[in-house]
């Protein structure tokens, strides 16, 4: 299948790209600059231009950002949309987080409808943030049928809220678009909670690491020694399982019109510390211990339930254990430690 993958320079997209190529799909990926295209090409030396090509989309907030990108020869049959800001280096939450997420998603769906009639399936990387509604009682079990009902006022009140809102508003806008416009393609969304895993995308140094893996970096390399960070969202998924889930949602007819909460289960930052302690004796010195570990613990009163059964039943995803994820992540970061 000929696939358009947006945001190819990202942490998750790099794994999706590898999963696509491995399963025999040919890929065009959008990146913001020629330099980013070259970095990806360099890390895939044996892959021909026919199977891996690039198109420059400098800013997904622009209304016509994807109009050219969706046109390809041979034409696209599928699209996977990962590009969306996930960082907190923001001056203006609307301009920096909400606009690119929402305009990017709707702009892409419009461009595909108008200019890529051969596309049959679009998969969007949404988030657990579009599902988890923290106003619910802690005894609640979230499924793919739930929505985070955040308001615009809540959204713009701080960058973390704005990020969570960017995911729920953009995913809602996608489903609304499909319902209203009835395009030639069907939509599926993948909703991951915290994503961890080995870094295969290009990074300059550990300061340029993607947001979710920063936590493993900080714990592994001494920054959290005096105080383990709060866990926040006590659900996780390995980036490799998540990548495969995207490709399966793209391939499987039965995924049409579905949202998929993808997670093997609960975890806490304390579990991350434990995994590193056991596998990397040389890093023990820098790990939080005793009282410093307490903020990272799983809440004694428990945390929300989750149901990711549909991801296993419909997509056939299987999930790696946390320990394997932590070991592979730390090993991928070690070469960057100065
Ligand atoms: P990354 O920051 O590594 O990837 C984000 C990608 O989006 C990059 O390719 C980035 O390009 C691109 N992008 C961001 N803003 C713009 C913009 N304004 N114009 C063009 N491109 C842009 O993060 P992840 O890989 O973690 O995130 C990928 C997706 O997964 C996002 O949609 C995110 O919301 C979602 N997600 C991630 C989770 C996680 O824990 N990691 C959890 C749930 C959802 P560039 O590299 O050039 O900046």
From TrEMBL:
InterPro entries named among the record's database cross-references: Epimerase_deHydtase, NAD(P)-bd_dom_sf, NAD(P)_dehydrat-like
Coiled-coil blocks: none
CDD domains: AR_SDR_e
UniProt keyword list: Oxidoreductase
Lineage top rank: taxon: Eukaryota
Pfam families in UniProt: Epimerase (PF01370)
Keyword Cell membrane belongs to the record: no
UniProt cross-references to PANTHER family, sorted A to Z: NAD DEPENDENT EPIMERASE/DEHYDRATASE (PTHR10366), STEROL-4-ALPHA-CARBOXYLATE 3-DEHYDROGENASE, DECARBOXYLATING (PTHR10366:SF564)
Family membership noted in the UniProt record: Belongs to the NAD(P)-dependent epimerase/dehydratase family. Dihydroflavonol-4-reductase subfamily.
Protein name per the record: Glycine-rich RNA-binding protein 2, mitochondrial
Source species: Knufia peltigerae
Organismal lineage: Eukaryota, Fungi, Dikarya, Ascomycota, Pezizomycotina
């Amino acid at each position: 299948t000929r696939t358009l993958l947006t945001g190819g320079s990202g942490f998750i997209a790099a794994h999706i790209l590898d999963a696509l190529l491995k399963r025999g799909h040919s890929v065009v990926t959008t990146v913001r600059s020629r330099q980013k295209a070259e970095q990806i090409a360099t890390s895939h030396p044996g892959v021909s231009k026919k199977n891996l090509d690039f198109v420059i989309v400098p800013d997904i907030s622009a209304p016509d950002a994807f109009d050219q990108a969706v046109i390809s020869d041979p034409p696209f049959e599928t699209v996977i949309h990962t590009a969306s800001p996930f960082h907190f280096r923001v001056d203006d939450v609307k301009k920096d987080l909400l606009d690119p997420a929402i305009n990017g998603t709707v702009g892409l769906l419009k461009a595909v409808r108008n200019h890529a009639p051969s596309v049959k399936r679009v998969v969007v990387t949404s988030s657990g943030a579009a599902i988890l509604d923290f106003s619910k009682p802690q005894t609640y079990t979230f499924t793919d049928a739930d929505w985070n009902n955040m308001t615009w006022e809540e959204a713009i009140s701080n960058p973390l809220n704005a990020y969570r809102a960017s995911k729920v508003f953009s995913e809602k806008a996608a489903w609304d678009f499909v319902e209203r416009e009835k395009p030639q393609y069907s939509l599926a969304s993948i909703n991951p909670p915290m994503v961890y895993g080995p870094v295969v995308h290009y990074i300059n140094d550990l300061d340029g690491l993607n947001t979710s893996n920063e936590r493993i970096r900080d714990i592994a390399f001494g920054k959290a020694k005096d105080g383990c960070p709060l866990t926040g969202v006590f659900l996780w998924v390995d980036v490799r399982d998540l990548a495969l889930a995207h490709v399966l949602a793209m391939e499987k007819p039965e995924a049409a019109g579905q949202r998929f909460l993808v997670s093997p289960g609960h975890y806490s930052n304390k579990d991350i510390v434990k995994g590193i302690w056991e596998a990397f004796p040389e890093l023990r010195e820098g790990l939080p211990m005793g009282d410093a570990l307490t903020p990272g613990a799983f809440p004694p009163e428990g945390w929300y339930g989750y149901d990711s059964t549909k991801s296993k039943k419909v997509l056939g995803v299987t999930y790696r254990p946390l320990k394997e994820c932590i070991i592979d992540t730390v090993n991928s970061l070690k070469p960057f430690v100065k």
